[in-house]
Specification:
96 residues; alpha+beta; five-stranded mixed sheet; 17% helix
């Protein structure tokens, strides 16, 4: 089992007005919730934000989404930072 600082332990997702910029990428709050509820894959974000994770999964409509998130282990929630549709290469890499 992953350590306590792993978002797989998240019990809810923190979506509010501060997350409205996610809509600019054509991803709705509903789709992010669907990915969260659909047993996503979590991978460390290896770019410049080492404290962030990638939440990867599919919506109920089978759309493949990758969402950069922060995990708050105290409140056990994931906080979406950015989201977009997966590329063909990402779908193959993560087998989703």
């Amino acid at each position: 089992m992953p350590d306590r600082n792993h978002p797989i332990h998240a019990e809810w997702i923190g979506l509010d007005d501060e997350n409205e910029h996610l809509l600019e990428h054509g991803i709705s709050f509903r789709e992010i919730n669907q990915v969260f509820d659909n047993s996503p894959i979590y991978r460390r974000n290896l770019n410049k934000y080492k404290d962030r994770w990638l939440m990867i999964g599919r919506t109920k409509g089978n759309r493949a989404i990758v969402c950069s998130v922060e995990y708050d282990e105290v409140t056990r929630k994931v906080i979406p930072i950015n989201a977009r549709e997966c590329t063909k290469q990402e779908k193959e890499k993560w087998r989703i």
